[in-house]
Design a protein that fits this description.
By secondary structure, this protein is an all-alpha fold. Helix content is 59%, strand content 0%. It is globular, with a radius of gyration of 15 Å. The structure holds fe (ii) ion (FE2) (2 copies).
């Protein structure tokens, strides 16, 4: 299934964004904090959009009440990127599709990185396959958008502040609109 309009995307966040997934903060707060960090880093519009929407796959999972959570990895990164692929270019969807693999990559190439991860991210890391094997590192680096995915991952890991107030979802509509295919 694919999103057909930007309104589909924003409606999904309005409806399910207040819910939580693996973290203590809501999906909506996590999304807007990740986007705010991308804006603060003066990222491209495409990467700001990727930051905002990187966990849209979790929103799709939350929309399916009967999905068994946490027991298995549901590949939210692939599902989210596929859902958005009819609306946004690969500069937006590729970092989304790779943001979990970017975590597994960072754990392999930078052992200190594991300490940055939240308890929820550590728990999901194991479900997602753990650190990449050395042979998988070069394979990951062959993906278009892999560097953007690693950059996005850094914002993702820090966008878990329960007290931070940032720009609301609606403020990103013009940016998202400008990127539509
Ligand atoms: Fe994620
Ligand atoms: Fe995330």
């Amino acid at each position: 299934m694919k999103a057909t309009t930007l309104d589909d995307v924003l409606a999904l966040y309005e409806r399910y964004g207040p819910q939580h997934y693996d973290e203590d903060l809501s999906q909506l707060d996590h999304a807007t904090q990740t986007a705010a960090l991308a804006c603060a880093a003066e990222a491209t519009d495409a990467l700001v959009a990727a930051a905002l929407l990187h966990d849209v796959g979790h929103l799709l999972e939350l929309a399916e009440r009967d999905v068994p959570r946490r027991a298995t990895d549901l590949r939210h990164e692939a599902r989210g990127a596929a859902w958005l692929s009819s609306l946004f270019p690969p500069t937006v969807t590729a970092p989304i599709a790779l943001h979990v693999r970017a975590k597994r990559y960072r754990v392999t190439v930078d052992p200190a990185y594991r300490r940055v991860l939240s308890p929820g991210s550590v728990a999901s890391l194991e479900r997602q396959g753990g650190a990449l094997a050395p042979a998988e590192v070069a394979v990951f680096e062959a993906n278009p958008g892999w560097k953007d995915a690693v950059t996005l991952r850094g914002w993702d890991d820090h966008a878990k502040d329960l007290t931070l107030t940032v720009m609301p979802l609606a403020s990103y509509r013009p940016l998202l609109d400008s990127l539509l295919l």
